[in-house]
Design goal:
By secondary structure, the chain is an alpha/beta fold. The chain is built from 14 helices and 20 strands. The protein is globular, with a radius of gyration of 23 Å. It binds NADP nicotinamide-adenine-dinucleotide phosphate (NAP).
Length: 477
């Protein structure tokens, strides 16, 4: 059993308890895991003040020094990966193997931005006047508010934290109510590598709207980075406008997964399993709508059903389990509603049993004959349900794929190189997996278009949102 981190707010390098606590529960059986300080307005204000105080000195620290500390934090995460993974499994429910993969993925952002801290270059610009020299330097925007969801509690935090700290910003993070322990464990590790007090502050809370709202509204906060639902992202953007704060948003998805007639069907099935079932389908990049070109629809569907039927469901700590429980009863109720609606409107159940809502464990479900009127074609399913629709040809497949307000990621399977390029360019998405079911990696820019968000995380671009460009015009004669 994994040991717990301190279960209080982490402010100015100290663990700060509160008068109220909330219970974090195991999604598998609702058993209580920990009682965590329920951050209030005073915690937020103290954390913002600490981040503001720590900012000038952290900003002045040379980039390579900031990078060194980030690199050490990455190394600590990796050496504690088993403990961190088990903690994540307890509060999130995902299988331990997936949790280990998440810890490594999360650490890779810290390692990546450790390097970027050394390479946050400026520019020199040719001037039109011979007596002028023009240079551009990068400056950190200031203290940042980081708000993260429960589905990847380490990685969604480090993807922001790594970039922010590398740029020279300080942060106040508010993790999701369901999964605060992972963030607190990360703060505990940060203490051990000597990241100065006030650079990282964490305020857990059971009242996301209130505490998130207060944090984002604090005048000292100069940038908001949010990962979560589109609905909340829109609220935060409206509020940020009132104070002209920088904001980046990693929001929901409704990913199309195209299998074209010339695809390698075994590769497409392998890609589908990763794209659909990672974290039991509770991922923003989960394949939500499968669009299969008619000539191979039957063959692909048969292979997909056979592979999905082999997946096991159970408690995440059981090493043989492929799919853990859904996060909570609301998540289960959504899947129940979407499957019932699809079947009532004529979808054909090829695999699985319509969930009853009595358990959070849901085995893979495959539905064929799905139409755009069905709710699961329009909404993020966030569960292990495959919705299949056929397309007559490439043009129809692209039109179906783009018929959504979301645009985070799309997947396309085809062996034809020209087709890969043509279809990838036609898809309205921030990322495209071509014969690939897993696009997330620290080196590449992660982010969406349309209602899936603004800004990019990871890659050399990930630091941009945390820096202001300052231009210096120097007269030399
Ligand atoms: P959510 O309800 O939007 O919550 C996300 C975070 O925002 C949580 O910390 C939450 O706190 C907080 N929050 C809720 N209401 C708020 C408000 N009014 N003001 C400020 N903060 C507020 O999303 P979720 O259900 O946790 O996460 C699932 C969603 O995240 C899905 O739509 C998924 O696609 C998306 N996601 C996107 C990406 C990406 O990179 N694009 C990655 C992962 C997930 P509480 O937990 O206390 O409510």
């Amino acid at each position: 059993m994994s040991e717990l981190p301190p279960c209080d707010a982490f402010i100015d390098g100290r663990w700060v308890a509160g008068s109220r606590r909330f219970t974090v529960r195991d999604p598998f059986d609702d058993a209580p895991i920990a009682e965590v300080t329920d951050g209030d307005d005073a915690h937020v204000d103290a954390a913002v003040a600490a981040a503001a105080r720590a900012f000038p000195a952290w900003k002045r620290r040379p980039g390579p020094e900031r990078g060194k500390l980030l690199g050490q934090l990455a190394a600590r995460m990796l050496s504690a990966e088993r403990r961190l993974a088990e903690l994540c499994t307890r509060e999130n429910g995902k299988p331990v193997t997936e949790a280990i993969a998440e810890v490594r993925y999360a650490a890779s952002f810290l390692a990546w931005f450790a390097g970027e801290a050394e390479r946050s270059y400026g520019e020199t610009v040719p001037a039109t006047h011979p007596t002028q020299r023009l240079t551009v330097i990068r400056e950190p925007v200031g203290p940042c508010a980081l708000i993260t969801p429960w589905n990847f509690p380490y990685a969604m935090l480090t993807r922001k934290l790594g970039a922010a700290l590398a740029a020279g910003c300080t942060v106040v993070a508010k993790p999701a109510e369901k999964t605060p322990l992972s963030a607190l464990a990360l703060a505990q590790l940060a203490e051990t590598v000597g990241i100065p007090a006030g650079v990282i502050n964490i305020v857990p809370s059971a009242d996301g709207a209130r505490i998130g709202g207060r944090l984002c509204g604090a005048p000292a906060i100069r940038k908001i980075s949010f990962t979560g639902s589109t609905a909340v992202g829109m609220i935060l953007m409206k509020n940020a406008a009132a104070d002209l704060k920088r904001i980046s948003l990693e929001l929901g998805g409704n990913a199309p997964f195209l299998v074209l007639a010339d695809a390698d069907l075994d590769a497409a099935v392998a890609g589908a399993l990763v794209a659909k079932f990672r974290n039991t389908g509770q991922s923003c990049v989960a394949a939500n709508r499968f669009i299969v070109e008619a000539p191979i629809a039957e063959a692909f569907t048969a292979k997909l059903c056979a592979a999905a039927a082999r997946l096991t469901v159970g408690r995440g700590s059981d090493p043989d389990v492929d799919l853990g429980p859904l996060i909570d009863d609301a998540g289960v109720a959504k899947v129940v509603r979407l499957v019932a609606d699809a079947i009532a409107r004529g979808a054909k159940l090829l695999l699985g049993t319509p969930p009853s809502g009595t358990t959070r464990l849901i085995a893979p479900i495959v539905l064929a004959g799905v139409t755009p009127q069905m709710q699961l074609w329009r909404e993020e399913i966030f569960g292990p349900v495959i919705a299949l629709r056929t397309a007559a040809d490439e043009a129809e497949a692209i039109a179906q794929a783009n018929d959504t307000e979301y645009g985070l990621v799309a997947y396309v399977f085809t062996r034809d190189g020209a087709r890969q390029q043509r279809v990838a360019e036609a898809l309205e998405a921030g990322m495209v997996g071509i014969n690939e079911g897993l696009v997330s990696t620290a080196q590449a820019p992660f982010g969406g278009v349309k209602h899936s968000g603004l800004g990019r995380e990871g890659s050399r671009h990930g630091i941009d949102d945390y820096t202001n460009l300052k231009y210096l015009a120097t007269r030399i004669a």
